[in-house]
Amino acid sequence: MKILFEKRIHSEDEMRDLAKELLNFFLDGDTIILNGNLGAGKTFLVKAISAYWQINNVTSPTFALVNEYSGEKKVIHFDFYRVGEVQELFDIGFDEYLSDDSAIKFIEWGELFTSILPNKKIVINIILSNDDLRTVTVIKYD
Ligand SMILES: Nc1ncnc2c1ncn2[C@@H]1O[C@H](COP(=O)(O)OP(=O)(O)OP(=O)(O)O)[C@@H](O)[C@H]1O
Ligand SMILES: [Mg+2]
Fold this sequence. Notes:
Bound molecules: adenosine-5'-triphosphate, magnesium ion
CATH topology: Rossmann fold
Distance between the termini: 7 Å
Number of domains: 1
Strand content: 25-35%
Shape: globular
Oligomer: single chain
Helix content: 10-25%
Order of helices and strands: EHEHEEHHEEE
Number of helices: 4
Largest sheet: 7 strands, mixed
Radius of gyration: 14 Å
Strand order of the largest sheet: 1-7-6-2-5-4-3
CATH superfamily: P-loop containing nucleotide triphosphate hydrolases
CATH class: Alpha Beta
């Protein structure tokens, strides 16, 4: 594992700036896990990243479990929060989505089902201290 960076974020604008910095780290086919409490900003960050790829209609996949978008990149966006058991993910084609090398895959609440996550991944942890402070750590696993 390699810590790519850690940053303290004080506003939505700073989060958008961080999203822009992250673009350099993402390659087609990558899987990006987002961990952090309710309201930490996982969906906000996926929206901010996707906006740089001209995808402006990102919504939380909490209920759909997965949403798919295409702009300058293909984006697949999962949220495991409401998944009861892992079979539900396989039923909606998790394996097929994950093996799509042309897409960038985001998974919110990936920590809930760590056993099905790929070894090669980027993990983004967002620690919400209060509304004015979020600490974002980005770690790469090969
Ligand atoms: N610096 C910031 N970065 C990200 N979001 C922020 C920031 N400051 C305020 N917010 C607000 O915090 C909220 C974050 O909500 P978001 O849906 O992204 O959280 P989440 O981590 O995806 O939660 P959930 O676990 O429910 O999916 C948004 O309403 C956003 O406007
Ligand atoms: Mg969310």
